[in-house]
Every structure is written in structure tokens, then in C-alpha cells.
Amino acid sequence: MPAAPPIPVAEAQRRIVERIEPLDAERVPITRARDRVLAAAVVSKLDLPPWDNSAMDGYAVRAGEVHPGGPHPVVLDLPAGARSGQSLPPDGVARIMTGAPMPIGADAVIPVEQSTGPAGSGAFAEPGEEVCFEVRPEPGANVRRRGEDVSQGSIVLESGIVCRGSEIAMAASAGHASVDVVRRPEVAIVSTGDELVEVEAAGTADRIVNGNAYGLATKIEQAGGVARPLPIVPDEPDATNEAISDALTSDAVVTIGGVSVGGRDYVRDALVANGVEIVFWRVALRPGGPFAFGVAGGRSVFALPGNPVSALVTFDLFVRPALRKMSGHERCFPRHLRARLAEPISTRSDKTYYLRCRLEPNGSNEWSASITGPQGSGVLSSLVAADGMLIVPEGVDNLPAGAMVDFVPIDDRIAWQKAVA
After folding, report:
1. 312-356 residue pLDDT tens
2. Partners of 33 in the beta sheet?
3. Is it the case that residue 362 has pLDDT exceeding 90?
4. CB atoms within 10 A of CB 79
5. Which secondary-structure segment (H or E) carries 314?
6. Calpha distance 340→189 (Å, rounded)
7. Which strand (E) or helix (H) includes residue 324?
8. What structural domains and CATH numbers belong to the chain?
9. If you average pLDDT over residues 29-46, what whole number do you get?
10. Helix H or strand E encompassing 216
11. Do residues 89 and 60 touch, judged by C-beta distance below 8 A?
């Protein structure tokens, strides 16, 4: 394959997402809908609230019959869950709890705090006792009307919404035990390399654990996909061809290693042999330049470098956005933060650098960014220590301490573990 010049990171991301389409829909119980994207609008089967009910603990009354300071007999007791349709006799009041159905005839609720009963101010009177009120309420005071939140037959959740706690609560409240969501993409993982072993064989002489596959499987699940790790593939053409053929039965394929220019790098040839159109190969990026993207019959293929940091970084930059789009998300890329460099940085200007760094509040309502250590593509420990990636764009070769830079978080650890003063 002729070697085209490496393309910029943003161009690579654009070419990927423009070739991706959301997957088809499936119906799932709402207990399994968390973080899934709705493939169809949810229409309420019910009025919410389903009946007029009290918004306060207090007394249901006819507003026109209330005489401030005068005694009123308590004739009904209506706890939450009480039978609806009970009638309030003339001149009587009902002790009522929040959420309980309003009795027929009542049009307002007086909070218990604005009452005085036999047990004193703000204490409930029992049925058969009398209670006095401080004020006469307006009709409708502290009453939730039937359907005032949601009316039966109305759309409560639009297609394309991500199901989080509030959306799932709404679907359930509207009478839906299941919803239609975009299907999660199955992603085959093809790890290549004679030097690799599974973690159970850690410590084998002259071999290294295939940690990339475990890390990427986790990232696939976090991105909304379903990981399908395949057995380790030796550096041999026929075995690589067979593995790619098997992997292409999934919605997407992630290969690890064998995509550069080494004498035993067979992944690109195997992709072409299996009908994969290589959209591009090589990105002006460090770490992770020897990255390729291709498509075949509606399936997407991402060929990642074998070095651990390169594999994880290119996944975040290129694969995760694609999986989010397959899963129906409109927002495919994470929001960048801004940070101030705590130290000078020197890079080459011919590519974009993603440097592992940690963030700390600097006392000026800003983030301060510090490099986590050696930035070699095999130094996984500096990625573990990082909050995310500091971005040095193409065309920049030196940044002084104090310069403002873009920063992309690895995950949400920033929000949970750190805070700007």
C-alpha cells in the first residue's frame, strides 16, 4: 500500500464519524436502559399526577368555609395511599398527607404548620377533634391537579435522549416497563503478536501479558459497546486473515498491533484481503501515529498500534467517538477544559501531541497542568497517574510555563476527585 502523508487528528476524526451511522433499535427493560439512547419517543400511558392530590401535609378544606381562628371539625383522615373518591362533608376538614388524593368537595390544603389543634400549634388533630387555622387559603393552594405535570398521550421523552436516572423515572412513572433504545455495538478485539500471552500466563519467559485487550475491553464497555475479545493471533499471514474474517461478523473491529511497517506486520494486508476499504492510514499524532481506519459492509475497523499508551490514546481519540455515534449519541467527543502549564514543554511542530498530565487547582480558580513523567508510548504508569491529555497542536514546538492549553479528561475523575478552589 502506498504510504500517504499522515493526516491531522481532526481530519481523521471527521473522516471516521462521517462514515458511521447509528445501529438499529432493540427493546429493553428500563432496568437495563441506563446510558442508552432512546430510539423512539416515549408517550405517557397515564396522567401525572393520576388524580388531584395534596402537595403538603395538612388539612384539605373548602376554601370558602375556612374562618381564621374558628374551630373546624376533623372528619376524615387521608394518608398517602388512601382510597380516592371520598367526599368531604360540609363545614368539615380532612387531615391529609402529601400525595394523598383530595377528597371530593375540597379545593385547597392548609399546611399543618399553619394550624393549632388540641396538641398545640403545628400538631395534627385527630379525627373527631377540632382544629383552628391562621389564614383562609386561596382555592387551589397546595393542590397538585391531575395531569398538571404530564397528560395521558403526551410525549414525555423524545427520541435521541440519553436515559439517566430522571429519564428512567419518567418512563416508569408514565407506565413503561421497557423502552426502545439504539442497540449497543458489538466490538471484536483482535490482538496480534507472537510475544503476547493472557494474564493467566504472566511471568512466562520472553512473553508479555496482553494488557491492551483487557484495557480496551473495559473502554469499549464504558463507551457503550459490547466487547468480544478473540484469541491472541500469532504474527503469521494466514492466522491474521482468519482472525480478521471472524472479527468482521461483529459491528466493529479493533485490532491491536501489526499495523505499522515492521517485517511481520500483517494487519493492513489482512484487512484488504477481507474486503476492508482503508479510509486512511497514519495520523500526525504522538503517541499513536500508525493508526488505520477502514469500512467493510457497514462495519467499521480500527487498527490500533501495539504500544499500550498508543493503543489506549487512539481508542479515546478515534474509536470511542465512533462507538458513541453507533450507539445513537449526538455528542461524540468530550468537552475540552483549559489549563495553565505548570512547566515548560518542548515538542515537534509536525504533529499533535497528547501528553499525559494531572490537574490541580492553582488557587486562582484555574487548573494547573503538570506532566506525569516519561511520555514514551510504552510507559503505561504515566497514563495511570494522569487525569487526562494535554494537547499541543501541530505547528507548536515550545510552550512556556504559564501558557494556557487545551486538556481532554480521560474520564470523570476530575469531577469526583478534584475541585477548583
Report:
1. 999 999 999 999 999 999 999 988 989 999 999 999 899 999 999
2. none
3. no
4. 12
5. helix 308-314
6. 37
7. helix 320-326
8. 9-23+184-326 (3.40.980.10), 25-45+159-182 (3.90.105.10), 53-144 (2.170.190.11), 337-417 (2.40.340.10)
9. 97
10. helix 211-222
11. no
Nearest to 52 by CA among 138, 144, 121: 144
Grade residue 2 by pLDDT with cuts at 50, 70 and 90. low
**289 close to 354: Cβ distance less than 8 angstroms:** no
Cell (9 digits) for 251: 459491528
Q: Name every residue whose Cβ is closer than 8 Å to that of residue 363 and which is 6 or more positions away in sequence.
A: 421
- Interatomic CA distance for residues 395 and 340, integer angstroms: 19
Torsions phi, psi for 293 (to 5 deg): -130, 135
Cα separations in angstroms, 421 against 359, 365, 367, 402: 13, 6, 9, 18
Judge whether residue 417 has pLDDT over 90.
Answer: no
Nine cell digits for residue 141: 393552594
Question: What mean pLDDT is reported for the chain?
Answer: 93
408 burial (CB, 10 Å; 0-12 / 13-18 / 19+) is middle
Q: Which residues of 188-212 are buried (b: 16+ CB within 10 A; e: fewer)?
A: bbbbbbeebbbeeeeeeeeeebbbb
What is the Rg, in whole angstroms, of the alpha carbon atoms belonging to the chain? Answer: 31
The verdict on pTM exceeding 0.85 is yes
Contact 78, 60 (CB under 8 A): yes
> What band does 3 get if pLDDT is binned at 50, 70 and 90?
low
> Which are the contacts of 26, defined by CB distance < 8 A and separation ≥ 6?
39, 180, 181, 183
Beta strand 115-117 pairing with 130-133: antiparallel
- Confidence band for 421, pLDDT divided at 50, 70 and 90: very low
Give the DSSP H/E element, type plus range, for residue 355: strand 352-361
Letter for the amino acid at 208? I
Q: Give the separation between CA 373 and CA 93, rounded to whole angstroms.
A: 73
